[in-house]
Amino acid sequence: MRIDLHTHGKLSKNSDFSVDYFTEMVKEAKTSGLEALALTEHFNTRNFYEVYETLDRLYPYNGEYYDADGLRIFPGMEVDIQETGHILLMGQKEHILAVRNGLEQYTAKGSFIPFAELLDLAEAWPLLKIGAHPFRESTPLYQLDRDLLGRLDAFDLNAKDMYQYGIETCRGQVEPFAHSLGKPVTAGSDTHQCLQYGSVFNVLDRPCASVAELKEQILAGSYTIEISSDLPLRVKASVMLKKVMKRLAKLDAARLQQV
């Protein structure tokens, strides 16, 4: 099963959740060859709960994942921590929403939850916990307390970082670091825009019907990571298109204010 473990369903944190935009994302994810993805929307995105309320209307949910016209969407969330860094959480929808409820007082920049407290909160449920882009200059994780880092399940090999820093440079940082903590590395496109799907993904030895099964395979090493030869082109095109779309959205908003 081909799965992307770091994806977003919105153009940006400040944009509304669009059914048209998201269904186009689903279509392109399938076109790129993906069979599943973890939807790790930012925990402090505008109207976070609206994302899952809309998915409930769009697709059947079996208690583990949404069936989006054959694409399995596992619930998740990306959380900022006080020390600087991002943590990906994946699990059953009610567990993700329960953690999100516990983060209500920590959504503003400057008041994010401490890493240890987030781990305590997340460990109340059987979630998959991944350290996102641990060597990204703006949100590094690698320098944090190793005992806390060791409570994560894996670390993210991120398409945006491979584009920015180079594929081999990025792998040369993330893989030895994860290995030093006895942790696996998983792949995530970190896409906010559909062109980035397929740039990097995980190929599981067998299909997963739950995050628990997904976590079991990852910890057992029963998967491989595939990096597309056109990753730089996919990410560059996605970044450029995202900028254009955000500018168009601002222009539309300005026009509406003038009416």
Automatic annotation (TrEMBL):
Gene3D superfamilies: Metal-dependent hydrolases (3.20.20.140). GO terms for molecular function: 5'-3' DNA exonuclease activity; 5'-3' RNA exonuclease activity. This is Histidinol phosphatase. CDD domains: PHP_HisPPase. InterPro entries: PHP_dom, PHP_domain, Pol/His_phosphatase_N, Pol/histidinol_Pase-like. It comes from Paenibacillus xylanivorans. Residues 3-83 form the Polymerase/histidinol phosphatase N-terminal domain. Pfam families: PHP, PHP_C. PANTHER family: EXONUCLEASE, POLYMERASE_HISTIDINOL PHOSPHATASE N-TERMINAL DOMAIN-CONTAINING PROTEIN.
